[in-house]
Amino acid sequence: MTKLLYALVVVSWTSANVVAPAAAETVLVNDGKANAEIVIADNAPRSVRFAAEELQTYVEKISGARLRIVNSPSGAGPTGTGPIPVYVGESESTRRVGVTAEGLGRDTFRMVSGADWLALVGSDEEFVPIEPWARSHNQWAAEKESQWRKLAGHPWLNPVGSRIYKDYNKQLDIWSYDHRGSLNAVYAFLRELGVRWYMPGELGEIVPPSRTIALPKIDRTVTPAYEVRSISRPMISSNEIDDVLWYLRIGANDQYGIMHHGQRHLTEHPEQRAAHPEYYAMMANGRRDNESQTANACLSSEGFFNETVAFARLMFDHYQIPIISVMPHDGFNHCQCERCRDQITLDRGPSGQSSDYVWDFVVRVANELAKTHPDKKVFCGAYSSYRLPPLKIDKLPDNVLVQITNGRPIRELDDEIHRDAAELRAQWLAKSNNPLSVTLNYTPFTNRGAYRPQYWPHVAARGIKASHKDVWREDVWLSSGKGGLHYPGMAHVNPYFISRFWWDPDQDVDALLEEYYRLFYGPAAEPLGAFIEFCEQQYANLGSDAEVTKKALDLFDQAQAAAPPDTVYRRRIALVDEFLPTLRNRATQIDVKRPEGLPEYRVIDMAKDKWRDARGTLKMDGKLDEAFWTAYHYPRSLRDVATSQKPKHPARFMARWWNDSLYFGIRCEFDKSEPPIVGSQQDRDPAIWQGEHLELLIETDKHSYYQVVVNPAGALIDLDRAVKLPGAYDWSSQAEVAAHIGEDFWSVELRLPVTTSDEDPLHQMIGSRPFQAKQESLESGKGTSLPWYFNLYRKRSGTKDVETTAFSPLGPDAKSFHEPLKFARIYVQ
Q: For residues 10 and 226, what is the distance between their CA atoms, to the nearest angstrom?
């Protein structure tokens, strides 16, 4: 990795500074005729050659004049016999006029002019991949993987060699890891001529015509505020060239190395799972979890530690990566083996209970690697239950880099959340001598069902202004659309504005927005701007508050009406409208009343003092015989789903709320002569539905709705039913399940963790604690109500007489379980 850029100077300038001619007759283009040429070195780096083409293209778009691209100046400008040279990239010619890239960091550039020349020069180091690396997914499996296995000698995945083709664009011959200082200089110059690339494609660009382009009088060095400026979409490997060009034009780049959940590369291979179950986290039932998709490691395993170190050394030595992640896999579970279990610190809550455990592992690995690779970096994210800094580690080693996941939250307009984000950064900075990396979930998961418009220009501006001096890398996660932006009419706003602040954090966001609204939406600027800013301010209420949702849609409809038909402005607004059908449908659904007489369930809040002795007794063995369940033993029954009659095979359940989790204890009776059919022992196996199973459908105050399926073996399927199949399976409840089969019953204990943050909709149920005040408080107006809704089904599939029961029966006309308006109310009181 190149040096970390910490608190760098960022230079901006006004268009008046740049376009003002050095002398009255000194112009690059005069009334549509070329008076200049583009000069690059004979052996110019690939990004410089491309930069020259971009400059040529846009000068022609602006003025109609096409500048030649040459390798040496034709003459001496207006004082001599030839056109004015515009030098792009360092060359012998730029060195003769005293302009070089010496001392410039990654993507930094200089814009310098003389009386009869202009130089756009930056750091242009070329990335060179190292074999074995695949040019495609198929090539890795067919050819390169065997080379890697021979090299590694272990069943390890190779995220560099197998996936690096995604960081390359063959058509442009550019890597995301290239240094592109001169290209960024060209784009900066074009922006000063009024060019804007708000969205991918010609529809997304602004090119103001000008028959004459002046030679600017300038001497500037521009350094980005962030060394690494990563966005997940569009990808540089996208098949849509417009997406790739936009990625380059907004000044994005990426970090070579292994980032994010690095441990997965040592735990996911089937051969590793089979050979070393002791490397994997032990669950509460005593089994090693070497089967689940995101199987986590036992961080006390010496074998796993040794392989982590060996893997890192191989990647450092062979692929010459400067940084490697040792971050746990997603869906983290704290190992329950004897050596790991007691390292949990429950008193620190869900964001810190595993911090000492995880970061101790990080430090041990880093210290070992420092012995052989002192110049390399070890990376880990502050995430999940290890988001808070560890208490037992005073200072992290200097070779450890910290990433705060969701480090600039989308709710940062809220002063308290803004202060909390700043405080978390301060706590981590106190533990480290290095600046931080942060990830951001901005417009994520629209391809998986997220339907609320997500606009965060003010959030981004506020967060970057507060944090840029302490951060070397930002990584923005956006929804995918086959390598490009998903719903680009809406999704372009956040990365565009973030990218502008990556280069100059001190800009006025409202001035940038005013220009954007005016240039991009023309006569619809005012109502469309009001729509965007209303959505930003009211995001939390969109889709749940009928009045807020309808107002947002009204503002959009005003904007659409203000844009004349058959104009570029109407076409741009139509792209926004493509994202809104689900929100429109939701607006009509919010006010739909639920039927009268539906059942209710009051959840026992185990945080109350009277349950102090009982709440620590839970063993998660599926038996329901602990005081956690028996201290208040009033189970509710399921009834026939169609008739509401008492079933042949009774089933009862209880629910508890404790430590931001919803617990269910469920007991299902059966005749000894007809035991339950178990469809599968494996999680996420569709065969689970072929045997007896329970289905829990649950709608929180923030999401409608989730589906969790459990069978007598404790095998689990979980889906996000707000998302169309097959995307619904991308969600993980991160549930903990334990099942027990007795002589004439089977029972299940189920823990469903709950998060209030909607920034990671792929993990855990999202919602506030379900709450309802007592009736007298509600009637007086003093109490509040924020319930959830649910239904619980038992289906005896696989038996001769398939019996189906439910807590909230659906009636004889129901065609499926999925009747959310008939869900029962569930709440803590």
A: 10
pLDDT higher than threshold 50 for residue 228: yes
- How many folded domains does the chain comprise? 5
Cis peptide leading into 516, omega within 30 of 0?
no
Task: Say if 666 falls within a structural domain.
Answer: yes
Residue keyed to tokens 């202060």: 419
The rounded distance, in Å, linking the Cα atoms of 55 and 568 is 24
- Reported residue count of the chain is 829
| Residues 290 and 215 reside in one and the same domain | no
Distance CA 294, CA 280 (A): 11
Neighbours of 427 (CB within 10 A): 13
Which pLDDT tens digit goes with each residue over 748-801?
999 999 998 877 888 999 988 888 767 665 454 444 567 899 999 999 998 878
Instruction: Determine the Cα–Cα distance for residues 485 and 476; give it in Å rounded to an integer.
Output: 12
Structural domain span for residue 166? 128-172
Question: For 798-819, how does the pLDDT look when each residue is reduced to its tens digit (9 = 90+)?
Answer: 887 889 999 999 999 888 899 9
Mean pLDDT of 390-410: 95
The answer to whether residues 676 and 582 belong to one domain is no
In a domain, 537, yes or no: yes
* CATH code, domain with 34: 3.30.379.10
Are 569 and 457 in the same domain? no
Task: Check residue 308 and give left, alpha or beta (phi > 0: left; psi -120 to 50: alpha).
Answer: alpha
Q: Against a cut of 0.85, is the pTM above it?
A: no
Q: Mind listing the pLDDT tens digit for each residue in 434-454? A: 999 999 877 656 766 678 899
Identify the bridge partners of residue 241 per DSSP, sorted by sequence position. none
- For residue 774, the one-letter residue type is K
Distance CA 616, CA 614 (A): 6
The rounded distance, in Å, linking the Cα atoms of 561 and 403 is 45
